[in-house]
Amino acid sequence: MIKKEVTNKYADLEVALQIDCKKCSGLCCVALYCMKSDGFPENKQAGVPCKHLTTDFCCDIHPLLAAKKMKGCLAYDCFGAGQKVTQSSYVNENWKTNPDKADEIFQVFMKVFQLHQIAWYLLEALSLVSDDRAKDEIDALLVENIQMTATTEILVIDIASYKMRVDQALKKVSDQVAADSSDGTNGKDYFGKNFKGANLDGRDFSMALMIAANLKGCSLKKTNFLGADMRDANIKDTDLSGCVFLTQMQINAAQGNAKTKLPANLSRPFSWQGE
Ligand code: SF4
Ligand code: SF4
Predict the structure, then answer these.
(1) Domain carrying residue 238
(2) Do the domain assignments include residue 45?
């Protein structure tokens, strides 16, 4: 199984899944329930604006988030749902200009977030499969996804059965990646484990606890991080460019530095600068 470039057919979708906070109305800072213990500034009810959200939807302490150890704010990534809802789903209105619609807007945001997250995984899967049947299956799921996020009736769509089909398709790809490269030593609990400098090529860390694990300088070609908890994992001086199913949110939650190499579709968190 060779990782290939995702076809240009989905170039627009790839861009749409990258967050662009300047085009958003601060949706995550209002719609979500936050807990101080999870690295947010305070306990906050869903639907209540964070006290640091400015009138033009910026964060007044953004440059200080790392120093203040606000890991929840640093790690969050909406897969582009915020700007999609602000710019496309609700043109010329937002939760602030139309408070009567605020709850509805927040629900749409949560649904688009789920669908965008799924689309991200499907694109990653599409880059990994080589046989036409698997490609067609993922392709059909992506087309369905795009149609659902484009409709104005998104809240009445039940995505449970869609998610089930996606899970099955992703499991097949994930199993195939593991079968192609597993060394038979896969596990799920690596809390704080020191892997420093190890060759972890092809390891299956899907859904694994990697909290505070030391991956510094490891070789991670085709290593599968699907759903792994990467909070505070040490990925300094580490080349992650060949690993699979690694998301921006996982990267944001980990500890990297200027020498960390990332997959092409992920960005270096601003909080890593200068380390
Ligand atoms: S919802 Fe997304 S785009 Fe909007 S501010 Fe939050 S992370 Fe940025
Ligand atoms: S501190 Fe900033 S990024 Fe975090 S929830 Fe508040 S406004 Fe948003």
Answers:
(1) 184-275
(2) no
